[in-house]
Every structure is written in structure tokens, then in C-alpha cells.
């Protein structure tokens, strides 16, 4: 027994503007920041309790597009990470479609291993601008064999903590099986 300290490396992915930085900053500081430089890529070290175990993690908040000219950089991120948070905005159809492409990219890069990923549908507070339903989100998650979470960085409803904890659990479970 005793607290193990597994090293969990999380990568936050998603189309620009979906709220990756807002979610990560919300998680780490409990604050909501309206404007965050969309070109900034930053990694944060953090410790938290997951199921009574101390988990140390590093969270990489990515910037830029997966299918741009920086494919090399993405391959590095994907090799580095052992858990992936795939974020879309419920107000942005394109960001929803990007999730499928990101998962495909991850599956290809991590072959033959299974990819540990969860989907987070953000900006649930924008009810009038919403164009992706919960049903659509859950269906996609099922197709991609990912967990599904929905919420809002603005409201601070705890969805980011839930998603990150789930990723930590799953990463640790897989590491123990290896
Ligand atoms: P990133 O490019 O994915 O890192 O997106 P940002 O975190 O920079 O957020 C893009 C914009 O969406 C910013 O203006 C944020 O204030 C806004 N935003 C992020 N999350 C939410 C949310 O849950 N609700 C609302 N209404 N706006 C959000
Ligand atoms: Mg950002």
C-alpha cells in the first residue's frame, strides 16, 4: 500500500477556440480567463488526489492545428502523451468533426497500442448558439471508444476535473496491465 506517484502525461487537443486553455487554467486556478493567447503552447505540472492516491501529472495545452504544417510537432506530442483530452465546442460543428480526425491520428500513431482518450464537449453555457447535441456527442464517443463529458469552462461546473481524473485512472490502469 502507500501512495504511488505515477507520472501521467496528458495532452489537451482540439480546434483553436474550443476553450482548451480556459479549461486547463480553470482546472489549475479555479478561475476563468476570457482571453488567452491562442498561439501559446504551455505545459503545467500538477499534483492531485485520484481515488486516494497522489497522482503527479503534466498537462500539455496545445495550440495550432493538427493538419497544418506542424505534423512533426504533433507526432512528438502524441509520442510523449499517455492520455489525451479531445475537446470540442458545442457551438462549433467543425471542432466536433475534428475530434474524429484527431482520434484517427492518435490510433495510427500509437499502433498497436490502444489510445487512452476522453472527449470533452465545452461551452455548454452557450445554449442559443449550440449546434451539437448531447446525443451526437455520446454517439461519437461510443464510436471512438472514448469517455464523454460535457460542461463549461465559464461555468466552472467541474467537468474538466472529472475528465482529467478519468484519464488519470485509465492511464494508471493501463500502465499496471503492461
Ligand atoms: P483554445 O484556443 O482552445 O485554447 O481556446 P481558449 O481557451 O483560448 O478560448 C477561446 C475563447 O472561448 C475565449 O474567448 C474564451 O473566453 C472562450 N471560452 C472558453 N471556454 C468557454 C466556455 O465554456 N463558455 C464560453 N461562453 N466561452 C468560453
Ligand atoms: Mg489555447
UniProtKB/TrEMBL annotation:
Q: Which UniProt keywords apply?
A: Cytoplasm, GTP-binding, Hydrolase, Nucleotide-binding
Q: Where in the cell is it found?
A: Cytoplasm
Q: What domain of life does the UniProt record list for this protein's source?
A: Eukaryota
GO MF term set: G protein activity; GTP binding
Q: What is its EC number?
A: 3.6.5.2
The main enzyme category here is hydrolase
Q: List the catalytic activities from the record.
A: GTP + H2O = GDP + phosphate + H(+)
**Entry GO CC:** cytoplasm
Does the record's keyword annotation contain Kinase?
Answer: no
The record's family statement is: Belongs to the small GTPase superfamily. Ras family.
| Name the UniProt record assigns to this protein | Ras-related and estrogen-regulated growth inhibitor
Origin species: Branchiostoma floridae
Taxonomic path: Eukaryota, Metazoa, Chordata, Cephalochordata, Leptocardii
Amino acid at each position: 500500500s502507500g501512495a504511488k506517484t505515477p507520472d501521467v502525461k496528458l495532452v489537451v487537443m482540439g480546434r483553436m477556440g474550443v476553450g482548451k486553455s480556459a479549461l486547463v487554467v480553470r482546472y489549475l486556478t479555479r478561475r476563468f480567463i476570457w482571453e488567452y493567447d491562442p498561439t501559446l503552447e504551455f505545459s503545467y505540472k500538477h499534483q492531485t488526489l485520484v481515488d486516494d492516491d497522489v497522482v503527479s501529472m503534466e498537462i500539455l495545452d496545445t495550440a495550432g492545428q493538427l493538419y497544418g504544417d506542424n505534423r512533426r510537432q504533433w507526432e512528438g506530442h502524441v509520442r510523449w502523451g499517455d492520455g489525451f483530452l479531445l475537446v470540442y465546442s458545442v457551438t462549433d460543428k467543425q471542432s466536433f468533426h475534428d475530434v474524429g480526425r484527431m482520434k484517427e491520428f492518435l490510433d495510427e500513431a500509437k499502433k498497436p497500442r490502444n489510445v487512452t482518450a476522453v472527449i470533452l464537449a465545452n461551452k455548454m453555457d452557450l445554449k442559443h448558439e449550440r449546434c451539437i447535441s448531447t446525443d451526437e456527442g455520446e454517439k461519437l464517443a461510443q464510436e471512438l471508444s472514448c469517455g464523454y463529458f460535457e460542461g463549461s469552462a465559464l461555468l466552472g461546473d467541474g467537468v474538466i476535473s472529472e475528465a482529467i481524473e478519468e484519464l488519470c485512472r485509465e492511464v494508471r490502469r493501463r500502465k499496471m496491465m503492461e
